[in-house]
Each structure stands twice: as structure tokens, then as C-alpha cells.
């Protein structure tokens, strides 16, 4: 399974002002650096947990339907499915009407059930599922525990900064970070 980001979040779960207040920074000299840390921390938490914190659109590519006819989506929480497209052997798209599938976005793992799904004609990436994931459009929609974990991570990286750029993080993880995000991690059986 491959997934591609189509529309990135329009905001971050933390404002620059809230991160600076947590770090006890008054001036503006470090605004760019702290902004980069916010983005890097969000991306790290999302990668580690399988969550998407702020509303963003993703496209998941599949070669074929699962035998169970239940497709698990790559990220959570899922707000909605925008479209499901199946390509024939010539690469012509066929959009599956929403009435032909059912989205379960209440379960821990969001999934789509489709009875008698159309078989793709392409050997690879013949199915595209475009969906919107995230807790909401603003930082207020993100659970406070996850925002606390982000602040903890940002403070740790800020304190131990040096020759390592924010994009090359994580160099180390603060104690307690894993404990805060553990309840939100995707559980597998």
C-alpha cells in the first residue's frame, strides 16, 4: 500500500505563540527555528502513531482489493472518503458511487467495505482511494494530550539543538513522550 499527501494541513496543531510561551521565548529571533520544530514534531508524531492531527487529504493506492472486501485506510481519524477510482487495463478511470461502499470511521482502524468491487485492469496501482483524515481544521480539535506531547518534544529538541537541523530530527526523544502518545497508537492484533 502506498499513500500520497494531496492537500497538506493549512495550520499546525500548535501556534508559534503557544510554543514560544512553553519555551519561555520573548523575542522573534527564533521564530523560524521554532516554527520548523513545530512542523517536524507534528510529522514525527504522525509517523509514529498513524494519526493525522490536522485535516489533510490523502490518496491511497492499491493493486487489488483485499479478499475480505474490507479495505483498511492508512491513517486515522478519517473524516470522509472523497472518491474511490478503479482504472481499467487502458488506464481509463471509473469512479465508484458512494452508494456502492460503506465507510466505518468509528472503529480504531478506519475501513471501507465494498460488496462486489470492480476489478482493476492495471497490474499496479489500479485502485485509488482519496480520503480526508485529521481531528479537525484547527489546533483546538487536536486532543490536549497530543499537544502536550508535541510541546514536550519541541522543548527537548530546542534544548538539545546544535548542528542538527529540525528536518533531521529526531535525534532523541524526551522521557514521557511515548507514554503520552501510546493510547493513540494504532493497535494491531
Short synopsis of the structure:
By secondary structure, this protein is an alpha+beta fold. The chain has helices spanning 16-23, 31-49, 144-159, 177-181, and strands at 2-7, 56-62, 70-72, 78-87, 93-95, 102-104, 111-113, 127-133.
Describe the structure.
There is one protein chain. By secondary structure, the chain is an alpha+beta fold. The chain has two domains: 10-53 and 138-184, Hypothetical protein yqbg; 56-133, no CATH class. Helix content is 25%, strand content 22%. A five-stranded antiparallel β-sheet has the order 1-2-8-4-5, with no helix packed on it. A hairpin with a 5-residue loop joins β4 (78-87) and β5 (93-95). α2 crosses α3 (144-159). The longest helix is centred in the first third of the chain and has 19 residues, at 31-49. The mean pLDDT is 91.
Lay out the secondary structure.
Blueprint: E1 2-7, H1 16-23, H2 31-49, E2 56-62, E3 70-72, E4 78-87, E5 93-95, E6 102-104, E7 111-113, E8 127-133, H3 144-159, H4 177-181
Provide key terms for this protein.
single chain; 189 residues; five-stranded antiparallel sheet; three-stranded antiparallel sheet; 22% strand; elongated
> What CATH first level of the largest domain would be assigned?
Mainly Alpha
- The amount of helix comes to 25-40%
The CATH H-level superfamily of the largest domain is Phage gp6-like head-tail connector protein
Number of helices: 4
Main beta sheet = 5 strands, antiparallel
Bulk shape:
elongated
Succession of helices and strands? EHHEEEEEEEHH
Q: How many separate structural domains? A: 2
Strand content: 15-25%
From the 3D structure, determine the CATH topology of the largest domain.
Hypothetical protein yqbg
Runs with pLDDT <50, length 5+? none
**Secondary-structure class:** alpha+beta
Number of strands: 8
Mean pLDDT: 91
CATH architecture of the largest domain: Orthogonal Bundle
**Strand order in space, largest sheet:** 1-2-8-4-5
Computed over alpha carbons, the radius of gyration is 19 Å
- The N- to C-terminal Cα distance equals 19 Å
